[in-house]
């Protein structure tokens, strides 16, 4: 993958509200081409690179008492939390349907598997990557099971410090090194003072062997673009059909318009990167000629006069001698009358 390309994952999570059809619609939105119309810039660029679903095994989710607890919330899909979670779960077969739909649209497919029991999904298909949710970074038995599959793993660090991250990496690296690390803050939404984007550069410095990215929980699109500019090569963002839909993650996700705006800016950023060099772009040559300064006469110079430094100053346009070339002018004879405040060109002197 090019170091200019930002790999963008649309996190569907539970925003499908238990509907495989709704999940497939979100896949289609993620796959849309992005139009860039900015004066002379008219481009169509690819949309997201991947979508992500989450798979839970409710027998390994919460304690019995927690699952049986009444869940009184405007976003509840059941009387108890267990009933609520059951509504939001897609079957293995439905995950496979969404996977096939993503592949038909040339999208990669990422799965967050929250328990060993969720590995049953691998009987149907092999995701392009497995995501480890922030809460499971310390679930070392799960990490071991995921790593044994040899499928690339993406770690989210939303609830972890360096010790927890290192322990997780030690487990996975015993099986393979296809690992990505996403800076993340498990606050929904994440307040600006808690984002700490400099963790991205910290991770790049201390874990150079891995691909570093950012899993975003802020409102809006500025933070992921800033993260990419700081070096994040993966961006993960929650997506939804409608931010006003029922569901705890909907309001903090990007709707279709927000997705298009974020993708526009991230794909433009890939163009903005340019090259690690300093040079004069061809596109600025006309402005350079018009606006830069050239050596010009301070006073009228008569034909035959010898030009001194006191006779010179700098005026636009920039198509004459530069000050660094003043030795090409000073001490030379005017070959014609040169009015005051005119550029001195090579054919005027000898």
Helix percentage = 25-40%
Shape: elongated
How does the helix and strand content classify structurally?
alpha/beta
Mean pLDDT: 93
Beta content comes to 15-25%
- Record the strand order, biggest sheet: 1-4-5-6-7-8-9-10
Whole-number tally of structural domains: 2
* N-end to C-end Cα span: 57 Å
Query: Would you tell me which CATH topology of the largest domain applies?
Result: TIM Barrel
User: Could you tell me the number of beta strands?
Assistant: 12
Task: Tell me the name of the CATH homologous superfamily of the largest domain.
Answer: Aldolase class I
**Largest sheet composition:** 8 strands, parallel, barrel
Identify the CATH architecture of the largest domain.
Answer: Alpha-Beta Barrel
What are the SSEs and their pairings?
Blueprint: E1 7-13, H1 20-31, E2 34-38, E3 41-45, E4 50-55, H2 64-68, H3 81-88, H4 92-104, E5 108-113, E6 129-132, H5 140-148, E7 153-156, H6 162-173, E8 179-184, H7 192-195, H8 198-206, E9 211-216, H9 222-229, E10 234-238, H10 256-272, H11 285-291, E11 294-297, E12 312-315
Parallel strand pairs: 1-4, 1-10, 4-5, 5-6, 6-7, 7-8, 8-9, 9-10
Antiparallel strand pairs: 2-3, 11-12
